[in-house]
Design goal:
Length: about 400
């Protein structure tokens, strides 16, 4: 026996497993709608022009690669705060936000989770049912008990808001509630501004801790629009957490660029919170990497590049919306009887199609159309060349 004889094989990541299956499929007409990645109309992962431009500048500047501060590039952290809370917001100008650079949005969630565990070790974490697959494991690995609050209503094809709000109103004080700030993954269904008001009121009256996961800012309705929910939590005077990801909005998946912001009641609180976030980072990976965050900081703080980014981001957002409309219209034209109007009500990269496990498996086996068994498809992977094949396949299994 070796040291590792008793080590069990861990289960495969279900979505990465789907990718492997896709790659092995000899069907020339296969379409991969399983991944959570934006592709352009040619089915290619875009490298944004603003990113190329910023990289050129960085290469020309030929800067040495010393260690970054533990909390990352100062200009980057400031730019993240501006995006999330608004550059002119009182909470930012009063120094009441502690922001750190993180290794992707996942890193932001994990730094926040580790800090929360020290702050309130006995809290339960509530995630939406369903949620991004990694939420549960991430908070469990940070030592928390993880439960769910109702979210998706399959029969209604929408959000079970009554169930959600009842769960929040029934949660004990200190419970951490993970909320998708916009573009809910995996369902695509967001709650309305009026419903957000009720969530904020519940968080406040029950003394809950909101943790907003903002992985898709700019993919729903716009940068400002998608960030509007943050203002509601600030206005209510709550202390809360926001994780940021630039993986999608800058198409910088592999650079691992994200952040964590903690909104505090005072500058003094923010200073002490920041000092603790830095300990979490220091004891995990010491300090973050330079390249991706430098690109994002350069783009966000250079007016011409920022304008370019906003346009390119709008381009991605608009293309997704066009694909939603096209999918809805083409399914109808293909004779699919059931009401598909939910497709254009959903936001962001994903759509819960309402298709069953059996239908999703038939799509894969008979037509080479790969989605997740839950019925989730990535609308951002549809394009003008593959959509007709996808529609034809869905029509056949419907
Ligand atoms: N939260 C949600 C809801 C996500 O969908 C994702 C990415 N798929 C993340 C967090 C993680 O983002 P990143 O890849 O930047 O770590």
């Amino acid at each position: 026996t070796s040291l590792f004889t008793a080590v069990e094989m861990a289960p495969r990541d279900p979505i990465l497993g789907l990718n492997e299956q896709f790659n092995a499929d000899p069907n020339p007409a296969k379409v991969n709608l399983g991944v959570g990645v934006y592709f352009d109309d040619n089915g290619k992962l875009p490298l944004l022009k603003c990113v190329q431009e910023a990289e050129k500048q960085l290469v020309d500047a030929a800067k040495p690669r010393g260690y970054l501060p533990i909390d990352g590039i100062a200009a980057y952290d400031k730019a993240v705060q501006g995006l999330v809370f608004g550059t002119d917001s009182a909470i930012v100008s009063e120094g009441r936000v502690a922001t750190v650079q993180a290794v992707g949005g996942t890193g932001g969630l994990k730094i926040g989770a580790d800090f929360l565990k020290r702050l309130n070790p006995n809290a339960t974490v509530l995630i939406s049912d369903p949620s991004w697959e990694n939420h549960r494991a991430l908070f469990q690995n940070a030592g928390f008990k993880v439960d769910t609050y109702p979210y998706y209503d399959a029969a209604k094809r929408g959000v079970n808001f009554d169930g959600m709000i009842a769960a929040l109103n029934g949660a004990p004080a200190g419970t951490v509630v993970v909320l998708h700030a916009c573009c809910h993954n995996p369902t695509g269904y967001d709650i309305t501004p009026a419903q957000w008001d009720q969530v904020v009121a519940a968080v406040k009256s029950r003394n809950l801790v909101a943790f907003l996961d903002m992985a898709y800012q700019g993919f729903g309705e716009g940068i400002k629009e998608d960030g509007a929910v943050i203002e509601k939590f600030v206005a209510a005077g709550l202390d809360f957490f926001v994780s940021t990801s630039f993986s999608k909005s800058f198409s910088l998946y592999g650079e691992r660029v994200g952040g964590l912001s903690v909104a505090c009641a005072s500058k003094d609180d923010a200073t002490r919170v920041l000092s603790q976030l830095k300990i979490v980072i220091r004891t995990n990976y010491s300090n973050p990497p330079t390249h991706g965050a430098q690109i994002v900081a350069t783009v966000l703080t250079t007016p011409a590049l920022r304008a370019m980014w906003e346009e390119e981001l709008a381009g991605m957002r608009v293309r997704i919306k066009q694909m939603r409309t096209a999918l809805q219209d083409k399914l109808k034209a293909a004779g699919v009887k059931q009401d598909m109007s939910f497709i254009t009500l959903q936001k962001g990269m994903f759509s819960y199609t309402g298709l069953s496990v059996e239908q999703m498996q038939r799509l894969r086996g008979e037509f080479g159309v790969y989605g997740v068994d839950s019925g989730r498809i990535c609308v951002a992977a549809l394009n003008s060349k593959n959509i007709d094949a996808v529609v034809a396949a869905i029509a056949k299994v419907s």
